[in-house]
Amino acid sequence: MQLEALTKLNAARRSRRAAVVVTDLAGDHVQVILEGEPVFGLLGEETAKVFRSGKAGTVEVEGRSLFLNVHLPPPRIVVIGAVHISQALARLAPVAGYDLTIIDPRTAFATEERFEGVDLIADWPEDVLKDRPLDAYTALAAVTHDPKIDDFPLSEALRVGCFYVGALGSRKTHAKRVERLKEMGRSDNEISRIAAPIGLDIGAASPAEIALATLAQIVQAFRRRDLITAG
Q1: Cβ–Cβ under 8 Å, residues 106 and 148
Q2: Where would I find the XdhC Rossmann domain in this sequence (predicted)?
Q3: Which of 9, 104, 145, 228 could serve as a FRET partner for 29 with CA atoms 20 to 30 Å apart?
Q4: What domains appear along the chain, each with residue ranges and CATH number?
């Protein structure tokens, strides 16, 4: 790979930005396309497909055979709340290929005994997210039922464009949450992205079933996500 292309690819990796390396199989030309860069025509359509699927492949574009090798930031899940649902989600997420972090300032809940081997941070989300910011390749699931803990990360997830934002609670609870988020500066369009009640509707009743429904909804959101656009 040419030095310029490699430098651009490494910079994308450091900033958790998706990239596609386009190699002309008939020659030695290599091009790196970052998610959000304008690409038109058939090549634009094909790069959009691999950005969503995460799978490399060969395509024919204007008589040229091109190999598209996609590099996606590892998708991750940030869970706000060290509760029973989080315990189950922490076991399920790695199976689906997701890194998972749990944040909860309540030290009675956020204990190593309850979350052995899990990336667990017993601190306030507004403090944690300063050093570990959310991004477009992060799913945010808020499950504490406590506005003092959930509201800030929900607002931040909407602001930065997390590919999934979900919150536990009834429709009545969510209606109150909507008003608080509006007061925090979030728009109706942003707030409409929140999955609430959280998880796919599978009739989930137990914490493990809610965790399964949530993970399924996260995977669905990732594979169907809107790509970053130029601007």
Answers
A1: no
A2: 77-218
A3: 228
A4: 3-71 (no CATH), 76-223 (3.40.50.720)
